[in-house]
Every structure is written in C-alpha cells, then in structure tokens.
Design goal:
binds zinc ion; two-stranded parallel ribbon; 8-stranded parallel β-barrel; binds 3-methyl-2-oxobutanoic acid; TIM Barrel
C-alpha cells in the first residue's frame, strides 16, 4: 500500500478547494488562512489549498496557506496541463511540505463530451502531466475524475500509466456520488488485482455525497485498501458535498472493532473546525448533522434522558468531549420525564418537596405540550409557583 504504517489512513482535507466550490461558499484569503491553521492544528495530513491556475485569488490563497502551515503537506490542484502545473509549483514555493495534485477525466462520457479527447490521448496526458509534475516535486498525486463511471479496464491502464510516470498517490474520484459501497469495493479489488505497482503507492478515494453515500463509500474503500481519504469539514463541497471529514474520522475512531485503522487527527478540534467553516461559508450546520450538529449529544425524550443520566453510553456512542463539544444536553420538552425535570431543577438550584415536585412536573408537561422549546426561565416560573406555596 505504499505506507509506512499499514493501518494508518491519511486525512486529505479539501475544504479550501472542493469545499469552496460549493455554490454560495467563497472564502477570502484571510479566511482560508484561518481554516488552514485550524486544519494544521488538528493534524490533518494534507491540506488542499486551492487550484492556482483557476484565478489570481486562488493562486494567492495557495501562496498564503503555504506560508503559514507548519506540519501538514500543502497541496495544489492542476488539470493535466503543464501551465497548471507551473502555476501550482510557483504558488506552493513557500510550503514546508508540498504536493501537486493533477487530475483528468477517465469516463467515456467525460472524455467525449468534456475533454473531447480519445482514450489514448488521455493516457498520454496522464503520462505527461505526472512526469512533468515529478520534475518539481516528489509528492505527486494523480486523480481520475469520474473514475467510478469509467470502464474498469481503461481505468486499470490509467492507474498503471500514472504509477509508471511517478505518482506517489493515486486517487479515484466518485465525482458525481454515484457508486454504491459494494460496487466500490469490487472496483478497488479490480485495481489491486490488475494494476502493476498498486501495492507500492498510496491509494486514495474522493467521494461526493449526491446519494448520501460519501462517508459509507469512503469507509468501504478503506476496508478495500485505501489509505488516504479526501474529505471536507461539514462535508462542504460541490453540489451535495464531499465526504464529511468528521464522519469518516469518528467512524474510524468509534468502530475500531471492525475498522482497525488510525488517523493522526486531534478529534477534540472537530467542533471548533466545524463552527469556523460554517461561519465563514455561511452554511449553517443542521442541528441533526452527525458528530457536529447541535443535537448530536442532545436528548429530549424521557426514556433516553433517564438512560443518559444513569449511564451516557446508553444513548451516546462517543463522548461529547472527544469531538470538543461542551457536553451532553438534556433538552426539556413535551417528551421529557421526571428524571430530567428533577435534574434541571437541581441545575437551576431549585428544590421542591415531593408533592410540589409532582404538581410542578404536571404543570411542566401541560405547558410543554403547547411549546416547541422551553427555556430555563419558563421552567423556573413553573417551579417558583410551588416554592412559594
Ligand atoms: O470530484 C472530483 O472529481 C474532484 C477531482 C478534482 C479529484 O474533485
Ligand atoms: Zn470533488
């Protein structure tokens, strides 16, 4: 697999490149630098900082990110064109560790309708772009755009060409989020069976979420041999987005029994990273978003609240602290029970004798039936009636 530590999965964050391609999300240079610093602190392995040839702003962003990142490898995207690669080399000049990421479409659909190139010309472009990039940088990643809708036999030849030309990482993109986990496993097994040199390079995946399968597909790929996952904070990315970094990382963290792989990530920074990216992109995080949504550790129903009060593991598969969240939250609502109501009163320093407690609880339930959300003040109002009684 071309890795020093065979069970280690590298986290390649593309929030600043594919994430920024999300319609409506645009980061300025300072914002990109702020996100890059957090990603670096979080010990992401590779930060894809942008696509330097695409605009002056992107070029400058890659330059600025290159200067501030201390530990991660900074990566710049290029098409299979020498001019793109020259721009990437220039933009990455200040980086301590750098990677050139060059891509080309490999599906019949894209080759005909987008590139207007024959398969042989695409193979030639792979050879030329990868070997040209290698003249400037040892760390070269090659990606097949729309790889999952490509003819597998042609894909094997593309991978072989990229590896022979010197790619150190080869990446398959599920560009339109089309593949299913079992199909992905079979496609990857085919690559390992038919591509000479696959064992000597790092194999990577890049999944989109058009069918809500980006995380599942990334995990299936890891089980099949991938040791780099391309993902973004909050799953930000083109259309429905990319695989969500926090979901991939926390699944590996939580399900070690079936996925015995590790990452370098400091997971306690996940919540901060999510908030910063949400603020900067103006893409609110849905409350029920896995790992980083505001409800990820919130419990409203009486049965769940009782369980969590007795033992958090009853309804939580990870601690809030491990992702840097403030703690489990018992949300008071119409389905809440006596245990949570009692705990809430204690938290509000309010003590009621048993009879009054029962009456206050009944009033609370009636009141809760009329409301979507209940504030601490409203609970205190109910309790105060009985404290003074
Ligand atoms: O989705 C995609 O195909 C990409 C490539 C550039 C890797 O983002
Ligand atoms: Zn993409």
């Amino acid at each position: 697999m071309g890795t020093n530590e065979p069970s280690q999965v590298l986290i390649f964050d593309t929030t600043l490149r594919d994430g920024e391609q999300a319609p409506g999300a645009a980061f300025d240079i300072e914002e990109k630098v702020e996100v890059a610093r957090i990603l670096d602190d979080m010990k992401v392995d590779i930060i894809e900082a942008g696509f330097p040839i695409s605009s002056k702003g992107d070029f400058k962003s890659v330059q600025s990110v290159s200067k501030v990142v201390e530990n991660a490898t900074v990566c710049a995207l290029t098409r299979a064109r020498r001019g793109d690669i020259d721009a990437a080399v220039e933009a990455l000049a200040g980086a301590k560790r750098k990677r050139i990421h060059t891509f080309i479409s490999t599906s019949a659909l894209h080759m005909k309708h987008k590139l207007n190139m024959t398969p042989d010309a695409v193979l030639e472009a792979i050879k030329d772009s990868v070997s040209y990039a290698r003249q400037f940088c040892d760390d070269v990643e090659w990606s097949c755009e729309d790889g999952t809708r490509s003819d597998p036999e042609f894909l094997w030849r593309c991978f072989e060409t990229a590896i022979k030309a010197g790619a150190s990482t080869v990446n398959i993109a599920d560009t339109v989020g089309y593949i299913l986990p079992a199909e992905f496993t079979a496609l990857i097994e085919g690559l390992y069976a038919h591509v000479p040199g696959m064992e000597d390079v790092r194999f990577s995946v890049h999944c989109h979420d058009d069918l809500g399968l980006a995380t599942a597909n990334s995990l299936a790929a890891i089980s099949a041999g991938a040791r780099q996952v391309e993902c973004s904070i909050n799953g930000l990315g083109e259309r429905a987005g990319n695989a969500s970094l926090e979901e991939v990382v926390m699944t590996l963290h939580t399900r070690q029994n079936v996925l015995p792989f590790s990452t370098n990530l400091d997971t306690t920074l996940l919540t901060t990273a999510s908030k910063v990216v949400s603020d900067i992109s103006h893409f609110p995080v849905p409350p029920n978003k896995a790992i980083v949504g505001s409800n990820a550790f919130a419990h409203e129903s009486g049965i769940h609240q009782h369980g969590v009060i007795n033992h958090p593991n009853t309804y939580e598969i990870m601690t809030p602290e491990v992702v840097g969240a403030t703690g489990s939250r018992l949300v008071m609502g119409r389905k809440s029970g006596r245990h949570a109501f009692k705990m809430k009163l204690e938290e509000l320093s309010c003590h009621l004798e048993l009879d009054y407690f029962e009456k206050a609880f009944m009033d609370f339930k009636d009141f809760a039936d009329t409301k979507k959300k209940i504030s601490d003040d409203e609970i205190l109002n109910i309790a105060n009636k009985y404290q003074q009684a």
